[in-house]
Amino acid sequence: MNSIKNGTAILLALVVSFLVMSCKGGGGGDTIKVGALFAVTGPASFLGSPEKKTAEMFVEELNANGGLLGKQITLMVKDTGGDPAKAVALAKQLINEEKVFAIIGPSTSGESLQVKDLCNDAKVILLSCAAAEKIVNPVARYVFNTPQKDSHAVARIFGVMKDMGISRVGVISANTGFGKAGKEQLETIAPKSGIQILISEVYDKDATDLTGVLTKVKAKNVQAIVNWSIEPIQAIVAKNIKQIGITVPLFQSHGFGNVKYAAAAGEAGEGIIFPGGRLLVAETLPDGHPQKELLMNYKRNYESRYKEDVSTFGGHAYDALLIFKTAVEKAGTLDSEKVAQAMEGITGLVGTAGVYNYSADNHNGLSPDAFEILTVKGGRFGLYTRK
Amino acid sequence: MQYLLSGITTGSIYAIVAIGFNIIYNTTGIINFAQGEFLMLGGMISISLCSVMPLPLAIALAVAVTAAVGYCIELLFVRWIHNPTVLRMVVMTIGISILIREIALHVWDEKVRSLPYFTGNEVTSVSILGARISPQILWVLGTCALIVVLLNLFYGRTLLGKAMRACSANRMAASLCGINAGRMVTVSFMLSAAIGALAGCVISPMTQTQYDCGTSLAIKGFTAAIFGGLGSSSGAVIAGLLIGVIEAVSISVLPLAYKDAVTLTLLLLILVVRPSGLFGSREAGALKEF
Predict the structure, then answer these.
(1) What is the pTM of this model?
(2) Best of A83, A183, A208, A259 to disrupt the B interface by mutation (most B CBs within 10 Å)?
């Protein structure tokens, strides 16, 4: 009896070690292992869910067309729930156990900042789908990001305010990585743009009502309100503003780039001004626009497959994989150093967010004109035009 | 005035959540940590039904379905605990809350939805003494008042209500008097699920409903329930409104980030001075296990 048990144990051990050996090395074998950290559930699921769907669609298509360097890609999506601590644990798992070659994501800035050094030290390429300035500044050798930068968003918002003759504003932001980063940028860029921030308040991302703090903002007699967050609270802010009778325009960040938020805000969402990627207004772009074809393709594929509207967030994952694919093809090998180098050499690459020009000291690659100023009209997004 | 009204806005949400905690507490003497999930379920079900039937019917059906869920929970889990100590029941309700949350995630996905406003829409507001408030708040306050009145009548006047209170005071003695204590627990779970679902529907237009929205609502509601003295519905409502107003006042003088610190400090102070809560009676508090 005992010997049988021992025999089974040895057999099991053999099988396990064989399995472990065959899994080793993300680059070796016939597949390329790519990890993905997306906030598929939780308060940031508006980002993570389309990112996951997009990444799965992209990889499926790529594999069907022969994969990358003749190898199939295995995409491993992990759900972080938008929690930085969980993102760190999952990143460690992807790096140490799964030995992935690269990681797409995380979805949010807070998570990305937490895993930045981890991936860089492990020489695993990280293509973050979050926007905060600090992800790519200071530059880390193996860390890149694909969304438009906070500072560009802020610059565009202040540009519109100047046109409208607005100089006194109130700022509210969520207590998340994205909110904090946005608040910092707003506060540093405001003086240079001749904008005065009269009040800047931080709220909890899970809050269900903000009439209190908005009353305080209203009392400051601001000419406009800027809200900086990515969560569904963006719709609540819009409703609360109308409910307590504030009439000044509401500006949101590029975190508003999901048409469901506009739908959730209903009539209160009308007239919100925010900087957003061209994906949201793909149809209205002139036919010769360099991004038009790619945007329409992505939009059509995504919407027919998942029966829901595209959002710029899914686009960030699309761009991350597109950049990864381009760099690996350019490098012609699966060596992280060479792929990182190839990535820094990417210029004029058309993605969903804009045209990417990476370099050794610019790991973001987009310029301020990657943003269009958008507004909500009849529950849909449209280009903002001055009345 | 606007601060006061915005305090009432947040307070009314806390209050309506807090009422639900009291019902199960009144019968079993435990806190049901899955109360927030009843709210979420009520909101979610009514939102799903709302597209195929008129709003009042959708809400009524959602309340009924959630009450049935409450019944099932009692039937499948609570009843089988032979020695229902406070700790065991609490751990179990936390487990149930996680279970419901995960099921909801699979049934409805992670997206945020909300019911339409009962009167007007997102931008309508009612002007009271120069300050503005959403009409939905009046609905919430009205529902609170209605629930409190009905509950007081139920507990004070009906035999079933009295029997339920007897179970809470002393389960053994109640059984000896011929009260079917097990059935009272079942009824209390159904009732609290129904009230939770109703609350979930009424606040959904304002707070929006998501599969995991129950937890954060429950924490605030729980705070209000303790503040007001566990077991007292009217106490819970007043305490909920009070917490909302305290928060609003704190926001008006301090940065928003200190809001929770201020409220919780006050709560702790009150609990040190009056362990039974603002409106709980001392003797009753002393008799209770928890």
Answers:
(1) 0.74
(2) A208
